[in-house]
Design a protein that fits this description.
- 12% of the residues are buried.
- The chain is of the alpha+beta class and 120 residues long.
- Strands 1, 2, 3, 4 and 5 form a five-stranded antiparallel sheet that branches.
- Strand 4 and strand 5 form a beta hairpin.
């Protein structure tokens, strides 16, 4: 009888615990741009957020930062955009590693590029 109670207690404890964790982050990042000459541009910001999830072979063999960069790049590619505003990442982890990474953000495209003349 004690073995049955112990076994049922272990099964119940395992049922209430999870083998994965979810992490949510939101950061504002500046685009990595090196300026050779001064220029101005307007942003054409889309009204709807875009969301991409990477999982399976897309997250194996990569670090978390590389996976986030790949997810952001795929989101930009799918939205035909130049920059992702307000990127938010959701990372789901298992005991053995990362299960999936989802990025969502507002896509924007640079328009009306023009040179800025230096003031004298």
């Amino acid at each position: 009888m004690k073995k049955v109670l112990f076994f049922s207690a272990v099964v119940t404890a395992m049922a209430f615990t999870s083998c994965q964790t979810t992490t949510r982050t939101a950061t504002s990042v500046k685009p990595d741009v090196w300026v050779d000459c001064a220029a101005e541009a307007d942003l054409d910001i889309k009204k709807e957020r875009v969301s991409i999830t990477l999982s399976g072979s897309d997250v194996k063999r990569y670090t978390l930062n590389q996976i986030k960069e790949n997810a952001a790049a795929k989101a930009l590619e799918s939205a035909h955009a130049d920059v992702l505003l307000d990127p938010q990442f959701v990372v789901v982890k298992k005991l053995t590693g990362i299960k999936s990474v989802t990025v969502s953000g507002i896509p924007a495209k640079y328009v009306n590029l023009r040179s800025v003349k230096p003031s004298k």
